[in-house]
């Protein structure tokens, strides 16, 4: 009996030890392969920092390190408005309403105050922020993390990227942010935003990089980092930090209709224009002297181009760099300085970063063959449009005629070259693609048109093929459209 009890005891002990071993093994495996749900984690990007500066291992440690270089910005600007009527300075009925019933009412000046954020990039007080935060401000007040306040002046602004450089004169050396490389940022990485949302100073929010290269219609150089870190009014101009403590973006835009969607300007874009902002107060951008448009499927088909990548040259400005280099209308730019060009937006961003006087190599497709060009970049003038994104698909339905001397004089257009559209049938395929009366057709399927005789001949050929590509001149811009019959 005693032996039986002893045997039972040992069997129970053995079963307990086996169960304990299995549970311990499962826990070890779970800890090794499953990600932690806690937000204060050490990320992969935190490991890849320099040896001299230890990477922060949590959001709290990161925030504590970088907050001293983040500033709050308050501005005051003077606006004119009615002395009575709307409490916001303008009547919802419009100024004509009061003029009609009360005559000329004297206007008074109102002080409009707004809040934003920024970050210190040099010990002597240079600060990056958004242009819209300081634009037209009469007074700019910068508040540091230690509550000291300084009046700032604008050093340089760039409305196209919404970036501004301002400066204060501090009494001692200031803490500065460490600038990162936004090109190396990956979707899914942890980031934190620090700013002044709704006037709530030094607010820290966290999220991930949701996407890169976003185009949201804010300007010609859209290239935003999208994040789900909370960004609200007042965050504008503040920094977006990666987990290694470096600034990768300038928080700038929110989507009013959505939650958890914010946008930041890549810091590399700001670095690229810093020199111009400091020395000139504005940004000088490169210019080739061409208008380009994206390649639709129908345009690619009509041009016998098997790819839709690249930018189709729709106009070449006489005497400008592209014209001097030999680039022609209808060429497809596919590469600049060995960098592939996928569309007009990428071409615009690439040229804008180049220095005036710089010699660049351009590769283009012409009649199915690659051609190389050497172009010396000129200075872009703000009044000139570099890119035309017009162009669509549809069917035939155009009435045209020769350009008479009287017509040319009345409309202020050149008499020679092209035929003028006199009518577009309502609801017709041509109407669908946006062709308008007074548009000038200068090419039909890459053939230059000088008269109605030329136009009729080439359109007849196109009807047989059931497709046509037209080069249209409208005002000072030109663009291609591709049309097809059923």
Explain what you see:
There is one protein chain. This protein has 486 residues and is an alpha+beta fold. It has 4 domains: 72-167, Thrombin, subunit H; 178-279, Thrombin, subunit H (Beta Barrel); 286-379, Pdz3 Domain; 393-484, Pdz3 Domain. Helices cover 23% and strands 34% of the residues. The protein has 12 helices and 28 strands. A hairpin with a 5-residue loop joins strand 4 and strand 5. 34% of the residues are buried. Mean pLDDT is 79; it is low at 28-52, 83-94 and 383-395.
Short description:
It contains twelve helices and 28 strands. The chain has 486 residues and is an alpha+beta fold.
Q: Write the CATH architecture name of the largest domain.
A: Beta Barrel
Q: Give the overall silhouette.
A: extended
Helix content: 10-25%
Distance between the termini: 99 Å
- Helix count, per DSSP? 12
Q: Mean of residue pLDDT?
A: 79
The CATH fourth-level homologous superfamily of the largest domain: Trypsin-like serine proteases
List the helices and strands and how they pair.
Elements: H1 2-33, H2 44-47, H3 59-66, E1 70-82, H4 95-102, E2 107-120, E3 126-130, H5 131-134, E4 139-143, E5 149-158, E6 163-167, E7 178-179, E8 190-195, E9 203-214, E10 224-227, E11 239-242, E12 246-254, E13 262-266, H6 267-279, E14 286-287, E15 290-293, H7 297-302, E16 311-316, H8 321-325, E17 332-336, E18 339-340, H9 344-352, E19 359-366, E20 369-376, E21 378-379, E22 393-394, E23 398-401, H10 405-411, E24 419-424, H11 429-432, E25 440-444, E26 447-448, H12 452-465, E27 467-474, E28 477-484
Parallel strand pairs: 7-12, 22-28
Antiparallel strand pairs: 1-2, 1-4, 2-3, 3-6, 4-5, 5-6, 8-9, 8-11, 9-10, 10-13, 11-12, 12-13, 14-21, 15-16, 16-17, 17-18, 17-19, 19-20, 23-24, 24-25, 25-26, 25-27, 27-28
